[in-house]
Structures
1.
Amino acid sequence: MELSVNDHGNFAVVHLKGDVDLQTSPQVRKGLLGLLEDGRRPVVDLSAVTYIDSSGIASLVEAYQTARKKGLSFSLVQVSPAAMRVLQLARLDKVFTFHDTVEAATVGA
Amino acid sequence: MIDAATPLAHLDLIAQVTAEFAHTRDPKGSILSGLVRVSRILEAEASSLFLLSSDGAFLACEACYGPVDITGLTFPADKGVVGRAVQTRKAQLVRDTADDPDFGTVDVDGQTGFVTRSILVAPMVVGDQVLGALEIINKSGPDPLFGPADQALLEVMSAAAALAVHNVELTERLVEQERLTTELHLAAEIQRKLLPEAAPGDFPVHGVNVPARGVSGDFFDIIERPDGRIWFCLGDVSGKGMNAALLMAKTSAIVRCLCKGEDDPGRLLGQINHELCETAGHGMFVTLVVGLFDPVSGEVALANAGHEPPLLVNRGGRLLRELPAEAPPLGILEDAAGPEGWPVSRFLLGRGSLYVFSDGLTEARPPGRPAGKPGGAREMLGQQGALALFAELAHLDRRTRLMALVEQVMVRDTPAHDDLTVLVIEQDQP
């Protein structure tokens, strides 16, 4: 899995690529929590995610919960069909905020 | 004749010391006794063993020989002549400390009153790892300066010393690993006892759980109410391993406790969610299906929190009804569902079979299924593959069927990729 971050004002666009699973999710968790620690607002681009398991979802959930506690926004953009299937099956589409594009997610950046 | 100025002159000593290092369980003690012997042969005044801290930041004297005891002396790993030997991984021969720029950076003489004139240090290296260094100080006798032969001897000894320390570390790690394995087995045994005992063959609800790695993040439970109705539940905790197993144990205890005072699966999920939200951490969550089956009316009331859809099939394996989650998993949001809790589906079981299962079933890649069949050629089984298996095994009684299902799905003798848990609910017709 690859993780890269681009700055959009006070938003941080986090691009994830490949499989987000038990091996790679700690890296996602650390990256997202680190950004929130610095007061940044993560926008997670899931367009290149080929597989995500429950530990990967848990790292997104933890970042989402942390953002809520800090009063920061947290959103998912361009979710790949593979990731969307998992999120919808678990009805996590009722939990996360989704956007179609990075531009839509970073309005006011 | 062997030249006394080469390390070969001390072949006996090297042989004895390395043999002792190879078997020792007390590397510091053995290395000290080796240092004493080398010091006597080279007529050195003092010698010490320094080991690097686990983070590599500090060097500490672990054993020493000579007029002053500096055991316990600790300094930054890049200071002094010893630090230089460790950083460069090369032996350091300082014939006169007065000329060495690094010597004064660790002021041992100032603290002890000892006078260091010359130093020989050899780093202890195993593979690409440096563990510490051996140091000998102040050669006396007719030629009071350390020479290349002394350096060669100390280098041989420090290589053997490094192996001795490394061996003992490996052994300790192995013992620790064995202890953890034993604890894991114990945890798995206790966890198995959290699952319900096998019900009599004619009981309407049967379940099976096969953990992928000793402990399981899945669980199921079957609880008969005094009024004859039967609670059943099946859950899957996010992640794997010990943390998932602990949350599994907690959730199953909460379910067992709360279901006694409740007869609505949606409200029950709401209460469990409340308990889990108070304490779950690290983004961990639980997908859970709970249902209440009434054997008299044949009605099932079922609520699904973010779990893979249970399937109601007829005895031929044809899908009659899918029960997808209508609200998220538990432990994420306190207000994930309304005041009535999670939405409830109510339906009659009739002659159908209701299967509730974890993704260990649908994501399994069972061996030996021919290509062309769903789940064949090592593809994920998926819902179609699961339905095909239910149909193939429909002629077996419930308990035998679940065992056969496990047989078909699990890869024998290789670790399974996920826990596998399946519940079946059906009623024998007169």
2.
Amino acid sequence: MLKLESVSVYYDKREVLKSLSFQVRPGEIVTLIGANGAGKTTTLMTISGLVKLRSGKIIFDNKDISNMSDYKIVQQGIVHVPEGRHIFPQLTVFENLQMGAFLRKDKKQIKQDLDYALSLFPILAERKSQQGGTLSGGEQQMLAIARGLMASPKLLLLDEPSLGLAPKVVDIIFDVILKIHDEGTTILLVEQNAQRALSIANYGYVIEVGKIILTDSGTNLLQNPQVKEAYLGS
Amino acid sequence: MLAQQIINGLTVGSVYALIALGYTMVYGILQLINFAHGEIYMLGAYLAIIFVVSLKFSLPIAGLLPLVFLFAMFFTGCYGFTIEKFAYKPLRNAPRLSALITAVGVSIFLQNYVMLTQGAKDKVFSHLISEQINAYFSNFFSKFIPSDGSRLYICGAQIYSLQLVIIITSIILMVLLNLFVTHTKIGKAMRATAQDLKMAHLVGIKVDTVISTTFIIGSILGAAAGVMVAMYYGRVWYYIGYLAGVKAFTAAVLGGIGNIYGAMFGGLILGLTESLAAGLIPGASEWKDVFAFIILILILIFRPQGIFGERIGEKF
């Protein structure tokens, strides 16, 4: 479904992704784990077109999307829910959700997706006309994911969805990720919480200073001594 | 006396407010002080006069005025669009200072462009048409407001009907702008882009389109202000954009730059302050421009974020 072929990205003269390759197959949950600054977020931003690649290729559904502009990538069905939630603070919850469906014109389908998103996070329905900036951190994360769903993604890129949230909220978020996945959306998940991420992932990639150093199934990576030592804190 | 100064203040204030909106909307999205915006207002004023002067056949005022507005707003909108595409868009990823200096350059360019093509002397609105317009509105308002034929009387103040036209038209335009940003999809996208540029890209908002729209709308509002000032004073000069621009910029800063309600409010406050100070402080009328700058200095010292102070959040 998604394939990165030796993708290199530079920030000025510094190479942050060094000929990175990996793939996500349809229907999978794939996770990228790695330390701070390893290039996880840059990888997602490159896929969604915010950062341009210097060389290599990104293929999505057999189309080369390497040089597509960001809104066209959204149109292809790749939706990026960035780290830090990025709620539009002075738009209402409802308007935030509307913005998620910005490129769509199929009104009936949008309404259905709205109902679906609100059914996943009933609290958002209660807060519908409240400004996004007044929500708690957990609610903002829920809104960020719900807004992502409003674009009706085929592939959802989630960057640190559990960062800074209370354990109870983290449970809700991970439950919803599984539900979204069950509905047929493919997921590429970036997480600091490697334990949690690997336990729901079909496949995991370990990234270190811009390179994939290890790939395996989620369950195998959980048992891998190298991963245990470096990322699972045991 | 007081009522007189208040009406005068509201008149200039609504002109400042209309121009200030252009500054503040562009700043909200690009963090760029578009110093050429005062010249956009000047272009609107010139276009109104050019249109009226070159019109070979005569039209009743009720038909002529909408045409003047549409003509000036349309072409000024085109100027705004083109300026953004040629001067600012190539610098989108350059340091902010480059765009700012470019804006000053565009401002100087437009002044000289108008001076060379229209002459360095004042350009005068047809006297005949000025009088017709005034008579038309005096006649209209005299149905509701006591009048002596050429002026209206409200609470003891003598008012020209064009002053009321300026105030009312400005209010209508601001209400329309408010409806636009709160109720249309592209309007909401404008607010979203101003609040979080990165996220606007990620939800698929075509940010270039939003920026173009912002420039066009800002220019249209500036043009409307220009047309009304041209009608009111009856003459324009290629340099009028400078002072009006600086004052409108002050109004935008006063209200809290980036906030459209701040610009509306700031414009009115600035107009009122100027007019009340000039009218009520003996001998101050020649110093009226000074008050705008005193206000600017005081705000920058005591409340740099302005009255409706937008919190400077982290971007990216």
